[in-house]
Structure formats: structure tokens, C-alpha cells
Amino acid sequence: MERGTLSVLRQTAKGPVCNFQRWDGSRHRSEYIPADQVPVVEANLERYKQFQSVVDQYVEVVSRKSREERLAGVKKNDRPRNRPCPGSRNSRPDLFFFGKDSQRVSRCRAGNPRAGSRLQTGQRAGRHACAAGR
After folding, report:
1. Interior CA angle at 93 toward 89 and 98, to 5°?
2. Ramachandran region, residue 89 (left: φ > 0; alpha: ψ -120 to 50; beta: rest)
3. Is 71 helix (H, G, I), strand (E, B) or coil?
4. Which backbone phi and psi does 103 adopt, to 5 degrees?
């Protein structure tokens, strides 16, 4: 079993003459392979590919098992629903500031005939955020 690359240099009457390139520690090695040794080196390279395939399958199985163990008993949406996360955009900020049981202020939208019909405490009719046309 060997790791590396086999490149054909030339064809001879006996078969291809190749160059075998590999990493040895921290150095790149290049080795001349005569035609009679090429089938042996090719078989060794194929065994390494099979070994890598088995190792990849093993890693996938172990990763899946450890992921299942980690997620066992954990609900998908385990965090509180009505609290915004820091740095995120909250689509319902009135729940955070006023609580879920308090009266919510309707959001203003263009063309909404009821825009601004309900006001918060201390607001006057012409002075809310929607009138400015955000």
C-alpha cells in the first residue's frame, strides 16, 4: 500500500516507464519506476485508494453516531419564543417590550386604512412613527 502519483514517462516494448511521486515526511520524492515494476506500484496505489474509502466510511458512521448521541433528547426549538436574540432582527419587538398579554400596537403599512388607529400611552394622533413614513 503506497500513497502517491504514478505518471507515464514513455512507452517501451516492455510497457510503460513511469515516474512515482510521493511525500516522504516533509519532502517531495520522485522515483523512477522501470516497466517491470509498474504493475506492482499500481496495485499498491489501488490498495491505498481502497483503504481511504474504508476510512471515509468509518468516519461517516462514527460522525453520525456521535451527532445522534449529542442531539438525543434535545428539541429542535428549545429556546424561548418571545425573546429576541442579541444582534438578531426581531419581527415582533412589541412582545419583548410590552409582554405577550399587553395590547399590541398595529404595524403601519402603506395603504392600510387603520394605520395608526391604536396609540400607545402618551402618544398623540399625529405624532407616531408611522406618520413619518418609515
Report:
1. 155
2. beta
3. helix
4. -70, 130
What number of other Cβ atoms are within 10 A of residue 70's Cβ? 9
> How far apart are the C-alpha atoms of 110 and 131, rounded to whole Å?
10
State the Cα–Cα distance between residues 102 and 46, nearest whole angstrom.
70
Beta carbons of 45 and 2 less than 8 angstroms apart: yes
Q: Which burial class, exposed, middle or buried, applies to 18 when counting CB atoms under 10 A from its CB (0-12, 13-18, 19+)? A: buried
SS3 7: strand
User: Per-residue pLDDT for 66 more than 50?
Assistant: yes
Per-residue pLDDT at 130 exceeds 90: no
Does the predicted model carry a pTM greater than 0.85? no
Strand locations in 1-134 (E): 5-11, 16-24, 27-33
